[in-house]
């Protein structure tokens, strides 16, 4: 039987899907996609005969049953997720169900909004003599987070931090971060990054809540905080250090 493919669609811009993901979509018999989270422009590469199924109105069991029916007909099934499926993609329970039914699958990674936001604001998360750690997390909501992963606990490391799926809890996010950072600390809210209506709000902990609410942003946004946002010193990376000329002979030197 043909395996099911979990494909990362990227952050929004249709051109940011991987070549492998695009080629699979072009050949797909059925694409089950994540509703409004997917830019429908990505689906334009599909054949007119491809069955397009919006998963936002279906339960997990219904989605799996549909996959099973299509695979039984030897159809190429794509489960299209936003960003990269491995980050808050809720694919583990789908893979477990496919395992239980003896159906093989593959996961094709995608460009996450984590990388897309950094490219938009022209920042690097990991800086020499700055920070070498990136924390990707979320505020607890319907899905709780472990006590050891509370936002203030993670923020205490004072390293680069990306907060996903939490803009609806902006008051609580600011309250938690303010336990560690001064209120004048820079913070960025990136809304629907790489989409046509993308919006980047650069603010401070003191003012970000008001800015987000005035902009009417309540979903599909990423929050960034950490020393990398205001890192003013520019240290040369060891990658480009003087040792290169001393120890290596490059073809263009």
CATH fold topology of the largest domain: Methyltransferase, Cobalt-precorrin-4 Transmethylase, Domain 2
CATH architecture grouping of the largest domain: 2-Layer Sandwich
Radius of gyration: 21 Å
What is the general shape?
elongated
The low-confidence parts are none
Mean pLDDT: 92
Oligomer: single chain
Q: Helix proportion of residues, in percent?
A: 25-40%
Fourth-tier CATH superfamily name of the largest domain:
Tetrapyrrole methylase, C-terminal domain
What's the short story on this structure?
This protein has 253 residues and is an alpha/beta fold. Helix content is 26%, strand content 19%. It has two domains: 4-108, Tetrapyrrole methylase, N-terminal domain (Cobalt-precorrin-4 Transmethylase, domain 1, 3-Layer(aba) Sandwich), CATH 3.40.1010; 113-230, Tetrapyrrole methylase, C-terminal domain (Methyltransferase, Cobalt-precorrin-4 Transmethylase, Domain 2, 2-Layer Sandwich).
What does this structure look like?
The structure is a single chain. The chain has two domains: 4-108, Tetrapyrrole methylase, N-terminal domain (Cobalt-precorrin-4 Transmethylase, domain 1), CATH 3.40.1010; 113-230, 2-Layer Sandwich (Methyltransferase, Cobalt-precorrin-4 Transmethylase, Domain 2), CATH 3.30.950.10. The termini are far apart. Helix content is 26%, strand content 19%. With 253 residues, it is an alpha/beta fold. The strands form two sheets. The chain has a five-stranded parallel β-sheet with strand order 3-2-4-1-5, sandwiched between helices. Strands 6-7-10-8-9 form a five-stranded mixed β-sheet, with helices on both faces. The chain has eight helices and ten strands.
């Amino acid at each position: 039987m043909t395996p099911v493919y979990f494909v990362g669609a990227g952050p929004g811009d249709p051109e940011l899907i991987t070549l492998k993901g695009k080629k699979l979509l072009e050949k797909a018999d059925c694409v089950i996609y994540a509703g409004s989270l997917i830019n429908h422009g990505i689906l334009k590469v599909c054949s007119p005969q491809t069955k397009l199924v919006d998963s936002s109105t279906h339960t997990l069991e219904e989605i799996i049953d549909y996959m099973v029916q299509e695979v039984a007909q030897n159809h190429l099934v794509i489960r299209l997720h936003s960003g990269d499926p491995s980050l808050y993609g809720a694919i583990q329970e789908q893979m477990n169900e496919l395992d239980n039914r003896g159906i093989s699958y593959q996961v094709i990674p995608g460009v996450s909004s984590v990388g897309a936001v950094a490219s938009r604001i022209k920042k690097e998360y990991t800086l020499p003599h700055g920070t070498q750690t990136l924390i990707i997390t979320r505020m607890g909501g319907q899905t709780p987070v472990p006590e050891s992963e509370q936002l203030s606990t993670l923020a205490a490391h004072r390293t680069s931090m990306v907060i996903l799926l939490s803009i609806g809890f902006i008051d609580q996010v600011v309250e938690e971060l303010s336990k560690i950072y001064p209120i004048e600390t820079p913070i960025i809210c990136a809304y629907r990054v790489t989409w046509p209506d993308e919006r980047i709000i650069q603010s401070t902990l003191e003012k970000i809540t008001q800015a987000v609410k005035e902009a009417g942003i309540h979903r599909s946004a990423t929050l960034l905080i950490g020393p990398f946002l205001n890192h003013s010193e520019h240290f040369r990376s060891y990658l480009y250090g003087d040792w290169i000329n001393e120890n290596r002979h490059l073809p263009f030197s």
